[in-house]
Design goal:
seven-stranded mixed β-sheet, binds fe (ii) ion, Purple Acid Phosphatase, chain A, domain 2, nine-stranded mixed β-sheet, alpha/beta, 502 residues, 2 domains
């Protein structure tokens, strides 16, 4: 029988343990194998995250693991302003999430955790500013499929000290097993577990694998994240009642969806608002205010209220006014929030969301992709009507999902003459679409270039597109202008790459 530490001490207390010590009683175990992260900054608080990896040595395993955390004004952690302690355990997969409160707005803080006598790295969040704000810089990205390549894009975002926050617009993980998507490139990044993930333990293992990546750990350490899920955090082309990639033999969708949501809240630095939707699920749509400059609305176009996708070419269903992409609760919340933002004099309204809002249509009536807003035209029209009727201005929509770079005018009827293609007359705002971190859309080829040019000719609302590169978008906003800069990397299948502004 193995002598556990507890058994040894019990025995020692009784004076009957005579076995020699075979190991020192100081574990060399490193508890912070998945890094640290911060997220959802508000003016007075920010989420701090870590995971304490359980000790693999049975002599040191504990059902409940204690930790402490501290927050300071300096990276040397001398001027401590907040601290605390707690315990974590298997019910939350040994993750730790702190909502550090009582902070000062517009301030850079530093934080770290400690457990098992070890210190975590030091991270750096920034609280949201209040009052007048002259300039803000956000990076936004999406679609970070671990098997598809190295996270060179995260590495580059981590290197930008000027960022106030990073928005991740979804597909932070992918659910597929080996051979499912983006594998086969011999990078040693095959998915773990080696199967499609469908239940809680699978989802937890998948996040754990992603978070061992040094570039992902570094970008979380450097910047606070504001995240929303897309479909692959649960299953491809998810909607409120199912998913394209949820099939017979994979159990009930409700159960899979609950497991995916639970793991997301365990592993992502996101605040749990406590708002529950009609289905009894936690919601993630929420708002952030950056001084008098920006109201940022983060949307959930997947699980909160999306009706099932229309079949290809089924324009009748795509136009059905009873269908919604956001669900009626979220639509109402967004419309009210946009009006309130105007009334309170905030300069810009920014929507961080998953699927393309602009029309990707050959003619007004023929959508190419029913999974995006084109497949929910009444839902989009209700939003456009509200924007027009309420005179809502200075609107930007930030989008992920499609693994390629696009800039659009948000035009209610881009194929009609009263939209001014050159002047932008009739446009309600702009839409900026980020390429994937590693997920691709088209291979680099002359055909892809021709395709970009052809799209530009066919779509009056399209200002520019690039279909082949991976990267992210830097949004640089002041009171007088907003600029989106597309940064691309030339490869994700090598650690040696070039990074450039288009
Ligand atoms: Fe994706």
């Amino acid at each position: 029988m193995a002598i556990t530490r507890r058994r040894f001490f019990q025995g020692a207390a009784l004076g009957i343990a005579t076995l020699p010590l075979l190991k020192t009683f100081a574990s060399t175990h490193q508890p912070f194998q998945h890094g640290i992260a911060s997220g959802d900054p508000l003016a007075d608080r920010v989420i701090l995250w870590t995971r304490i990896t359980p000790d693999a040595d049975p002599d040191f395993q504990q059902a409940i693991v204690p930790y402490s955390w501290e927050m300071a004004l300096d990276p040397q952690m001398n001027q401590i302003v907040q601290s605390g302690q707690g315990v974590t355990g298997p019910q939350v997969d040994y993750t730790v999430k702190i909502d550090a409160e009582g902070l000062v707005s517009g301030t850079v803080y530093y934080y770290r955790f400690s457990s098992n006598g070890k210190l975590s790295p030091v991270g750096r969040p920034r609280t949201l500013p209040e009052g007048h704000l002259s300039r803000l810089r956000l990076a936004f990205c999406s679609c970070s499929n671990y098997p598809a390549g190295y996270f060179n894009v995260y590495r580059e975002i981590a290197r930008r000290p000027e960022l106030d926050a990073v928005l991740h617009l979804g597909d932070y993980i992918y659910e597929y097993g080996p051979g499912g998507y983006g594998t086969g490139n011999n990078l040693g990044r095959d998915p773990i577990p080696a199967k499609e993930i469908t239940v809680l333990q699978d989802y937890r293992q998948r996040y754990a694998q992603y978070r061992t990546d040094p570039d992902l750990q570094e970008v979380h350490r450097q910047h606070p994240f504001i995240c929303v899920w897309d479909d692959h955090e649960s299953a491809n082309d998810a909607w409120k009642g199912g998913a394209q990639n949820h099939n017979d033999g994979e159990g009930a969708w409700e159960s899979r969806r609950n497991d995916a949501i639970q793991t997301y809240f365990e592993w992502m630095p996101i605040r749990e608002s406590g708002i529950i939707d009609h289905f009894g699920h936690k919601t993630i749509y929420r708002r952030f205010r950056f001084g008098d400059l920006i109201d940022l609305f983060m949307l959930d176009t997947r699980l909160a209220g999306r009706d099932q996708q229309a079949l290809p070419l089924d324009v009748k269903v795509a136009k059905d006014p009873s269908r919604s992409l956001l669900g009626l609760d979220q639509e109402q919340w967004l419309h009210n929030g946009l009006s309130q933002s105007m009334n309170e004099g905030v300069r810009w309204r920014v929507l961080g969301q998953q699927v393309m809002m602009s029309q990707l249509t050959i003619s007004q009536d023929l959508p190419i992709n029913m999974d995006q807003w084109d497949g929910y035209q009444a839902s989009r029209q209700r939003l456009f009507d509200h924007i027009q009727n309420q005179g809502i201005n200075n609107l930007m929509v930030l989008t992920g999902d499609i693994h390629s770079s696009w800039a659009f005018d948000l035009a209610p009827k881009p194929h009609f003459p009263h939209y001014g293609r050159i002047s932008g007359y009739g446009a309600l705002g702009g839409e900026f679409v980020t390429p994937g971190v590693t997920s691709g859309f088209a291979e680099k080829s002359d055909l892809a270039k021709v395709g970009s040019a052809a799209l530009d000719g066919v779509l009056p609302n399209l200002k520019w597109t690039n279909l082949t590169e991976r990267g992210y978008v830097l949004l640089d906003i002041s009171h007088s202008r907003a600029k989106a800069h597309w940064y691309h990397v030339d490869t994700v299948t090598s650690r040696h790459y070039n990074h450039y502004l288009l």
